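Provenance and format

Records in this collection were gathered into a single text stream. Each protein contributes a sequence line and a token line. The two records reproduced below are adjacent in the stream.
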Amino acid sequence: MAHKLVIVESPAKARTIGKFLGRGYKVEASQGHVRDLPKSQIGVDIEHGFEPRYITIRGRGEILDRIRKEAKGAVKIILATDPDREGEAISWHLSKVLNIPEGDVCRVEFHEITGKEVKSAIKKPRPIDMNLVDAQQARRVLDRLVGYKISPLLWAKVRKGLSAGRVQSVATGIICDREKEIETFVPEEFWNLAVQFETDGVKFCAKFYGEGDQKTDVRSQQEAEALIRRMKAASFKIGEVKRGERRKYPAAPFTTSNLQQEASRKLGFTTQKTMQIAQQLYEGVDLEGDGTQGLVTYIRTDSTRISEEAIDAVREVIRESYAPEYLPEEPNQFKSRKTAQDAHEAIRPTDMKYRPDAIKASLTRDQLRLYKLVYNRFLASQMTPAVYETLSADVLGDGLRLRFSGQKKKFAGFTAVYEEVLDDAQDEEDERTMPQLAEGAQAKLVDVSSEQRFTQPPPRYTEASLVRALEEKGIGRPSTYSPTITTIMARGYIARENKRLVPTELGQVVNDLMQKNFPDIVNVQFTADMEEQLDEVEGGSADWHRIVSDFYGPFEKALATAEATIEKVSVEDQVSDIRCEKCGAMMVYKMGRYGKFLACPNFPACRHTMALLTDIGVPCPSCGGRLLERISKKGRKFYGCENYPACDFVSWDLPVQDKCPACGGRMVQKRGRKGEIYHVCVNEKCRTRVPVSSPDGEGEGEAEDE
């Protein structure tokens, strides 16, 4: 029977879409890119317009053979890869492999994986957008030139295994610059003075503001003690009293960066974990009674735009579930950032009927937590503002001015559902007693307290605040934030300490080298301007060959100078906070053939080493504890329970969250002979095998660095 062939990226998405389309369609997965620049060489023809030389990715031959076979018997080929630059490029590569004529209306976009959206989108094919493809090609070529030209220099002058990139080097520089700010910060002393007053039997606390109308900073103990003596001798009365209301409006629905930031702050997720779980929710989850459903819209977006249909749906939920005063007369509108591409809606639930509590039995714990975050954020975004009663009053005496301020929530509004958490927030919403204060009334001083404080340096970045900084500076795009952070941590440029990102000595050395020799590569404004130029390519107003050419000329000269002048750099090992069990020295981090490990610095006198244990995010099937990645004495990776020896669970294969679709049993990840990846049931009587995306397939975002 003749069929239409639909090609997507992910096997999980292929299964979901296949169920929606039914008979007459065959759905296959490319498992990410099928062609790319070769790894063994630069793969860019610098002498002839920087044309890329693509080859079939190793391990993709079998996938392409299967797709070609299905394509031969298909009456129509439909390319339905992700709706972004990277997805457009994958579709273009597939069109070349399958000899689809240029201009053929073969491309469709699924912005959400639901039956309604899939069936609607399949009826609206379009030609491949070459502007999007060219923008991706420009990014890929630029990243290849930077990566393959600078990385060998870093290997020769610093250490093997290092890399540089347009975005990763800027991100590393931002973290290193913050560390320099902290190191050079000179704290300044100041004193807080708080006075307890009583008026008409009511006690309240006011803080010292200044003298007259001028705000005054108290910089020493002597100044504080002098002011206290004046206060104790003075007579005070209530000055101007101001009562009012403050409205706090809900935040917009999630963009990619907002989701990563909020998941980090509220759930403790890394950016990588957030995107992995979000991908699962987007591709589809088996819901009891409803089959497979994509629960959230496309997860890589910088837009806060919402469809009218979705707004109507969420307003109906508010109307049914809350009092009338929680629903604004008109829908709330939100503006996207000036640099937003606005290609997709904000991240929202695909169907408001799937309330988190109603479907929790079908979700893993982490899926439920992230879905609840998305659902409640979207619900709150269309609710009325919270209203706070505010009170401020001055207390005057002997030329001194003290000030009381307080607020009390009067109406919950959207905060009944959701409140945004900000980095380093200082109890903004802390409610205080609202005393009845009358202007002109006498105020009796009851007690005075003073507290010595010092100004603090700027805080180190968290993953959340780094993503926000990259977005605000126009560095990277939604798909690049997570892979960028993953890359610079994998290279050993930064480390995570108490959820804060700290540059390693290696990171500082490489950053200094880059700052001195390749200032444009690590310059924030230069990189932001380059992103804007790529956006212009996407919009059809700029030629990608010219952009690459303009970049390469100065870059080539800087590279030649660096190769001639940079001397060999020695990097000291990073010291850990773990003592050697044998000799008591503080152990240092080392990089071995199996990754990072701890070693005694007194080698060879002391040869003690320790493995670094990584939580894989999957509970132990025996006791529910954390499963840790470990290395055997022979260097083989395995997975064991943190509660060993009380719990002796061990697995040579990576345990995964997914349950077997056939028997509900435990599954592990295995790799085939040609690099393909499967989830396999451990039940010997079942052994169901489910293909999944390969490591360089969907979910990693745009390739940013080599």
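Adjacent record:
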Amino acid sequence: MINVPQIWISDLTHTKQGISAATFPLGASYVYSYAKKFLGKEIDFKLFKFPEDLNNSLKIGFPKVMSFSNYSWNFELSYKFAHVCKQINPELIIIFGGPNFPTETDEKISFLKKRAAIDFYIELEGETGFYSLVKELVNNNFNLSKIKNNNLQIDNICYLNSDKKLIEGPQKRVLNINDIPSPYLDGNLDHFFNLPLIPMLETTRGCPFACSFCADGLASKNRVTRYEHQRTLDELTYIAKRVNNIEELIITDLNFGMYKQDVETAKLIASTQKTYNFPTLIGASPGKNQPKRILDVSRIIKGWNMGAAVQSTDPDVLKAIKRSNLSTEAYRSLMEESALDGTKTESAVILAMPGDTKEKHFKSIKFCLDNKVSTMRMFQAMLLVGTHMAEKKTRETYELKTKFRTIPGTLGTYDIAGNKYPVAEIEEIIVGNKTLTEDDYIECRKFNLFVVTFYNNSIFEEIFPLLEDQKISAYDLIYYIYKNTNLYTQKINEILKKFVKETKEDLYDSWEEANKYVLTPEILAKYIGGDMGTNELLNGRAEFIQNFEDTCTLVMNAVRELFRERGLLNETVKDYLDELTIYLNCKKSNVIKNTNETVFHKFSYNFSVINLKNIKTKNLESKKLKKFVNLKFYHDDKQKKFIENQLRVYSNHAIGLGKMFQQTDMRKVYRKVEVVL
């Protein structure tokens, strides 16, 4: 477009340690599409995801306006672009939006004064604010001073006027989100199908709950609205026809499966899966009530780990964070029903929230494992800007002890308008409170590592049924491993020592201290290289998986000791456990490094046909063969392609592998087994 003002909209991701946020820029694309609907003839809009693409466009020239989506994982990168470009071109108008913006007036003023390059901040929903602001900019010929001098109040817009006083427009939500054009159906996201990014889909917006740790828990966001089903179907079809070696779809709904309309949405997804074999994996946050409906939804679609994030089972902790969970009985019923038909389930706990203790944290994990949840997620309590938990009153009431650290995967040196700039994202996490010491925090993190390693993603699913037959729970096994350090091999000790070291050394008393340290050139190089600053939990798990023989030895030795302590380790059980150890190593060791490797081994048990999920100690003797059977372990072509595609999305960087092992259904990665005659 000739002589038409350009407005650029960016939802940036870090790219120097793999792609940090490997998803389509869906939120920014809604803002883009809504503004384009009304102003497309007057404005040339452009949408960016990668900082390299944004920088390449700067080489051609500057737009009238640069706008950025602000999240905890990309703010510093976005602001560095804004600051540098503003210095080069003071007439450039900078707009920011996104959930991580203070809720209190004095904090808003402080935020904007500290980040003077930001001319306007969009609160609440971006579509209304961005369109209203751009319309005023057009009407005022992009005269920034004219707007600020007149204290113009614009819907959802917050800014400092010429006298540095805070001006806020009325907060408004989009009354009917179906008025927002689909960025998929309008072709505004076509470019991103050619990139290693996971598509995202929004079917509802808003959350009725008020959790204090979540930016969506604000009262201004509690109204839930829904897109029409036909639009959802059209978007699903559009995506399925265009995905390129991507198997996953992320549903951005905050409570998927909780509403009766979600059943119909699930049917649309199931239809798409049947027709296009996409998506095979679905990421979605489950609802916080209506367990029966959530279960119904999970039975309709494939590839979704249904569940309920408990965060904590302690009533005092839940009260402190304004969280309402499923009742104990409702949760147990949900897990029991899902187990009957093999539905995959997921739950999560958050460490160090107000009122938490080591004992309460362990108890919450035990509750989930005892109720047979398939996957456990372990999170640390983050104090996100724009949440009630980050407010001064909450900090003081619960004596929250916080540290600052680099968010893994979110740093690097970037080219911006002719120069290179180091950038890192820093987050504030809770490492203690008046009931949880920092030493207990470290012990909880160690236990978290054992849970996600030894329990998640079916890595040792062949073992747990045998234990349960003798009334030994998965939690019992993991807690035994945690307490009995004498079982650890040298390699296991090295992994744990590194894990604790990384957990401690990446924590700083202030944002400034953390930022200064990580941006020191030699330190930054170590971070980028993966020697420092990884997600210690994901990285530790990745190391356990990559050193599977040592990991397997540890787990199986713990199993033997538990059986021995109960007088159950007879010769039959011992022989079976010895062969099972070899079988697991053949099937699951080095599954990423060398997909062309084929392994052969002779066994007294035909593990290719034994139902290991229903194995019992009393049946072991009958399962033993009179002659050895020769088993072949290998990856087929489909598996090799799958692993290749996963590495394309997540990379083979330490951080990428950690994410991949967490997100991937590892059953698709373990070697196939067949009898060789």
